Amino acid sequence: MSQDDLIERLLDFLRRSPTPWHAAASMAARLEAAGFRRLDEREPWRLSPGERVYVTRNDSSIIALQLPKGELDALRMIGAHTDSPGLRLKPSAAQTSAGWLQLGVETYGGVLLAPWYDRDLGLAGRIHVRHPDGRLEGLLLSVERPVAIIPSLAIHLDRDVNQGRPINAQTQMAPVFLQGGENADLERLLKGWVAEQHGLTEVELLDFELALHDMQPPARIGVAGELIASARLDNLLSCFVGLEALLASDGRQGVVLAPSDHEEVGSASACGAQGPFLGDVLRRVSEQLGGGGEGGFIRLIQASRMISCDNAHALHPNFTDKHDAAHGPALNGGPVIKVNANQRYATNSATAAMFRDLCREAEVPVQTFVTRADMGCGSTIGPITATELGVPTLDVGAPQWAMHSIRETAGARDVEYLTRVLTAFCNRSELA
Length: 432
Description:
nine-stranded mixed β-sheet, 9 helices, 20 strands, metal-binding, protease, aminopeptidase, hydrolase
């Protein structure tokens, strides 16, 4: 594969995916273009060996399946998540102060707040409307221009700001939206954007889930173009790489790609990794193609492997003391196996050995991350999926800087490295 073409596809995917709903829609469009058939959870399924299908839940989580032409005896699963930390509008978002209409927001996930100041912010998400005939419909909305900003307070009015002033998300993070605006203006603007994007002028706005996002486009940066800078690299980079690997695979093995929503807030939802979505789908597949009832399903799961793919903390040149001296992954140094003795990551020596062997086969360098013993460790969908399904799992990811910032940084070569090794995983005949 051409690294330049791969990076351009990644940048395009990032541009098209300001929210989890947009990310799932973007992936669905590529799957359908590649011949995948959409399934509906409310309908009976008729599956055939060799088929390629996908299904969504909440329009923000998606599961794609490549069914083997032969016996369904094992699945190569790749998990990721479609959501990223950020600012979401409150249901009654309009508020006024000092002659400005502002937007009331709440934080979604563990947001790094300071980088949100002085950014050109767009608005995107999902809106539900009622048509004149009474029909309800959900629509995607993405305002393709900056409509808001959170201005910093001048240093002259806060001389101690560089000494580490805390940020109050309730009182100091409301974006300014419209000068002289009133509460009714927000609904009027939303209806105008719905009309502009969907041609619907007679609908009633019922509810919305909208998020602010950075309008600065993703870019390849660095003197040699060795870096990628973008919003939502955590974890849309993994969603993209998993999709690329699935589409590039030879089609002989059973493969599952499962990017889910709500990882950043704990995964406990109907469409999150702690919910029943993946298990529901796999049981229906096993019933039709695997046979053997619950016992057959358990045999299938134990013969399968899950790679939970979520970005890893790269060694930061300005903060090298934040890493264990022997476990500081480098950008462009290859995918990172993430290990934690307290099961914050699902990796064990058996699953790590399989991944190291895959990297050897794909001629890809591999790194390891363990957090410092005196620091807390984040987690992923890996331990959750392993707990819910019982599938042998490991956690890996591309290294990055500035995780949970409005703009994050990763290595350009790592995109190709991770794609190559995940493609090898999709094609691997023996998983033990």
